[in-house]
Structure to design on (343 residues):
C-alpha cells in the first residue's frame, strides 16, 4: 500500500464527510482532521492488505482497524504531505503526537516500529452530534463538590491538544478549581443539563490582585497554571472589596465539544455578562479583561467578542488578549457569535 496514493483508495469526497464532523471537536483543526482521516484510511487498508484481503475498489466508508498497526514516520510523511514541498518526517512525527494528545489515536513502540491504533470511529462521532439535540441547558453556579471532576475532564481535553504528553491531568485541574471556588466562587459558572444536571459548559472570571497585573505584560507562558496544572499559581486573586482590583483574568470559557452550538454559546456568554455586572459590586473599579489564547478555538471565540492580541510568547504559540470590560458588557452577543462556525 503506497501512502501517497491514499486519495485513490479513499476519495477526497468521502474524506470530507469525516473531516466536517471531526473538525467540530475541540483542538481538531481542518488540517489535523484531514491528516487523521488519511491515517485512519491508510491503516485500515494496510491491515486488510496484510490479512490477504483483496481490495475490490475505493473505500466508501471507514471501519475501525483492529489493534495496533505499524506505521513509520516516513509512511506518515508520504501520507500527510505527498508530493508537497512542505513537511518532513519529523513534522509528520510531531503531527502524530498531536493526534495522540487529541485522543484520536494511541501510539506504541514494539521495539522495532512505531505502531498506531485508531481510537475514534464515525458512529461515535455521529452519536456525539445527535445527543445534543433537544437538550435544555441552564446557567448555574459552579458546584465544587459535583462539577469539579466533569468540568476538569473536558478542560483537560481542551488544553492537552498542544502538548505531546497529557500534562493537564483532570484530577489536578479539579483541585485547582475547588481551591478557587473556596476563595471566590462568584466568577465561576456552568451551563448545566436540565435532565442529568451535568455541567457541560464552564467559565471562570478571576479577580486579579494589583501586584499580579504585571503578568499581563510578560510572556504568557509565565502565567500558565490551569492548562498545565502546576502547583504554584503565578497570579494572585484579589479579595472582595479590594478597590485596587481593576482586572479580570478570564482563565477559562469553554463548552464541552459535543455542545458547541450557536445557541448554547450565546447562553454561556450572556450569562457571563450578568456575572461580570454582579462582580462589579465586589470590585467597583473593574475595567479590564485579559485572557490567554491557548487554543485556536479559544482565540477565535475571544476575537469574536472583541478581544485583541497585546503580546505574544517568544517560545510558545500563546498570546495575551485584552478587552475593555465596558465594551463586553454592551456587546450584542447574538451578532458577535454569528461569525463563528457553529451549527
Amino acid at each position: 500500500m503506497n501512502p501517497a496514493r491514499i486519495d485513490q483508495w479513499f476519495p477526497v469526497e468521502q474524506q470530507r464527510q469525516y473531516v466536517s464532523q471531526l473538525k467540530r471537536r475541540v483542538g481538531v483543526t481542518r488540517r489535523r482532521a484531514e491528516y487523521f482521516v488519511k491515517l485512519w484510511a491508510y491503516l485500515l487498508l494496510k491491515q486488510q492488505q496484510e490479512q490477504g484481503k483483496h481490495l475490490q475498489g475505493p473505500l466508501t466508508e471507514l471501519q475501525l482497524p483492529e489493534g495496533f498497526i505499524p506505521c513509520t514516520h516516513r509512511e506518515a510523511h508520504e501520507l500527510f504531505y505527498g508530493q508537497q514541498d512542505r513537511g518532513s518526517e519529523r513534522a509528520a512525527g510531531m503531527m502524530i503526537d498531536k493526534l495522540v494528545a487529541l485522543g484520536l489515536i494511541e501510539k506504541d513502540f514494539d521495539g522495532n516500529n512505531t505502531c498506531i491504533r485508531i481510537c475514534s470511529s464515525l458512529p461515535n462521532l455521529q452519536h456525539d452530534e445527535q445527543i445534543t439535540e433537544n437538550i435544555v441547558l441552564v446557567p448555574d453556579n459552579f458546584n465544587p463538590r459535583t462539577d469539579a471532576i466533569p468540568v476538569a475532564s473536558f478542560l483537560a481535553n481542551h488544553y492537552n491538544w498542544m502538548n505531546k504528553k497529557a500534562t493537564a491531568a483532570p484530577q489536578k485541574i479539579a483541585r485547582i478549581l475547588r481551591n478557587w471556588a473556596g476563595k471566590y466562587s462568584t466568577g465561576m459558572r456552568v451551563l448545566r443539563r436540565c435532565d442529568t444536571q451535568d455541567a457541560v459548559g464552564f467559565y471562570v472570571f478571576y479577580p486579579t490582585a494589583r501586584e499580579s497585573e504585571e503578568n499581563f505584560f510578560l510572556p504568557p507562558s509565565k502565567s500558565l497554571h490551569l492548562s498545565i496544572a502546576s502547583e504554584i499559581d503565578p497570579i494572585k486573586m484579589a479579595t472582595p472589596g479590594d478597590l485596587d482590583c481593576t482586572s479580570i483574568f478570564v482563565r477559562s470559557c469553554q463548552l464541552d465539544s459535543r455542545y458547541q452550538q450557536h445557541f448554547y454559546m450565546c447562553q454561556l456568554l450572556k450569562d457571563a455578562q450578568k456575572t461580570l455586572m454582579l462582580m462589579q459590586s465586589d470590585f467597583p473599579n473593574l475595567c479590564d479583561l485579559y485572557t490567554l489564547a491557548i487554543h485556536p478555538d479559544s482565540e477565535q471565540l475571544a476575537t469574536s467578542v472583541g478581544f485583541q492580541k497585546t503580546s505574544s510568547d517568544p517560545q510558545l504559540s500563546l498570546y495575551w488578549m485584552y478587552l475593555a470590560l465596558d465594551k463586553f458588557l454592551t456587546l450584542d452577543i447574538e451578532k458577535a457569535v454569528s461569525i463563528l462556525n457553529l451549527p
Remarks:
- Residues 30-50 form the longest helix (21 residues).
